[in-house]
Amino acid sequence: MSKKLLLLLCLGLLVVGLPVAAQDAPTTEWKCPAGFEGKTLTWFNWTTYEADNTRSDFTKLCGLADTAEEIMGSNEDLIAKLGLGNPGYDVVTPTGTVVPQMVREGMLEPIDLSKIPNFANVAPFLKGPAYDPENTYTVPYQWGTIGVGYNKEAVGKEITSWEDVWSYGGNVAWLEDPRNMMGIALNLLGFDPNTTNPDEISAARDYLIDHGGNVRSIAADDGQEKLLNGEADIVIEYSGDIFQIMSDCEANPDQNCAGKFDFVLPKEGSVKWVDNLAIPKDAPNPELGMAFMDYVYDAVVAADIANFTAYASPNQKSIDDGLIAEDMLTNPIIYPSEDVASSLFDVVDVGDEAARLYTEAWTELKVLLGQ
Question: Which runs of consecutive H residues, i.e. helices, occur in 271-335?
């Protein structure tokens, strides 16, 4: 839950004379199945991608020894680790784009949806995606967009287009996400963002090289930190990462950054994505992993996560019950309006051969840009 929202809720409880719950008391009434006492759940997850109490509450509710998290830098990082054998993860968080590859390579275990009754809370439009039509291997965790976060004071003008990013005279950080970055370039060139044509993939590589003169770093899911500490004035990043630092700045005046940053989706369009929860092959505790999925789909837990991460929740019950912060629910970037949605595109699986072409093109690009 966002710190600002949590403060307002606490103040509201004090005003009406109700006791504020102890900090260490779980906020949900979700019941953990029996038999997991003393076990440890290990989650391979993106950075800043859960609420402060997500794992600690689950640990208490199930009587676990611990719920550990290891930070995931990229989908490529996830695939590389599992390709060498599961190092001990019970739950992983792949983006939909790479799920078919992971299934082809035998990296994921089937999920038993009967053990995830709260899956009923998922919005219908997020069930049965093209990359996993029967939700055999994955369930949606969070979804959002990729766009541009920037320091308004340093840039000195409103950013509205990708050309504003390419032509900026200061420091820029790109996202370490080959398919999505290449997809943006392909879209700008008028090609299918999911092309398998080698010439078009090469053209996208060349386009990014030609427009990457101001790139100082390619960030492994930490562009928001580079923006916050001044390493970059503009970053291409996941939406929630930027909204999180914007919220923190508003909630902490002593940081002197309130109103300093903004996030936009360039007018030419950008990427919509869905991240998922999955059980990797040889998971030490697959049943516990499915219990964790059910817990995450509890309406209160899902709302806490979405309100903290500033990404869109797949949990329709959280939305219908009024548990999502109003300023997030009405934000057309977090929960895209019809106009915004029409400018977004999906990056999907293109098969192993084309995936290899994208990877090679991205590697060549990084070398030529000195990254």
Answer: 286-296, 299-309, 316-320, 326-329
Q: Collect all residues with Cβ–Cβ distance below 8 Å to 136 and sequence separation of at least 6.
A: 110, 111
Helix (H, G, I), strand (E, B) or coil at 34: coil
First to last CA, the chain: 35
Task: Report the C-alpha gap between 236 and 212 in whole angstroms.
Answer: 12
51 three-class SS: coil
Sequence-distant (≥ 6) Cβ neighbours of residue 368 within 8 angstroms: 209
Under a CB-based contact definition with an 8 Å cutoff, are residues 212 and 229 in contact? no
Please name the helix (run of DSSP H) or strand (run of DSSP E) that holds residue 8, with its range, or none. helix 3-15
The rounded average pLDDT for each run of 10 residues, N- to C-terminus, in the chain (371 residues) is 34 33 67 97 95 96 96 92 97 96 97 98 95 97 96 96 97 94 97 97 98 91 90 94 91 91 95 96 98 98 95 96 94 90 92 94 95 87
Name the 3-class secondary structure at 297.
Answer: coil
Q: How far apart are CA 45 and CA 256, in angstroms?
A: 30
154's enclosing H/E stretch is helix 152-155
| Per-residue b or e along 212-235, where b marks 16 or more CB atoms closer than 10 Å to that residue's CB | bebbbbbbbbbbbbbbbeebbbbb
What angle, rounded to 10 degrees, do the helices at 54-62 and 286-296 form? 120
Per-position b or e across 36-54, b if 16+ CB within 10 A of its CB: beebbbbbbbbebbbbebb
Read off the pTM: 0.83
| Whether 142 contacts 312, CB under 8 Å | yes
**C-beta of residue 196 within 8 angstroms of C-beta of residue 183:** no
